[in-house]
Amino acid sequence: MKLVTSHFLSPSHRLHHARAESVLQTADVLAAVLRDSQCAGGTQRLPKAIGKSKAMEMVLTGDRLSAQDAQTAGLVSKVYPKEEVMDKAIELAEKISRNSRLINTMAKEAVNKSFEHSLSEGLHLEKRLFHASFATHDRKEGMDAFVEKRKANFKNK
């Protein structure tokens, strides 16, 4: 069985695919240690991801969460059999890479900051990024392609 630790909740908040036999665990309490945010940050990130009650149970008991339960809780986006997980992750990366890298970066920033900001601050950031996107070539190309019902050819500018 593959063990996925609280490092899974890394500061980058990337999309995660899990192998069906994976488990998620915040086992710090079992070792009588509490790691700092530079190391893992599970006590700060986990409640924002799955809610205080479930996070408190996991942090205080060190109980494991199956890949399926992690998906239900929103900690992983997909669960695949071991032999498929890498192919599926690459497939997702290829799909994402067909979008404008510049706009993907803005969108990722907005989602990541939602864990740090209030809703009001997050909406303000989203509005600033929206306005900034209008200064990009890719925004024009994307909107033109949509109107013309064709595939966009992004230049990441």
TrEMBL record:
UniProt entry keywords in alphabetical sequence: Lyase
Superkingdom assignment: Eukaryota
MF terms in GO: enoyl-CoA hydratase activity
Transmembrane feature ranges: none
Annotated GO CC locations: mitochondrion
GO biological process, one term: fatty acid beta-oxidation
EC number(s) reported in the record: 4.2.1.17
Pfam families linked to this entry: ECH_1
Similarity comment: Belongs to the enoyl-CoA hydratase/isomerase family.
The protein, known as: enoyl-CoA hydratase
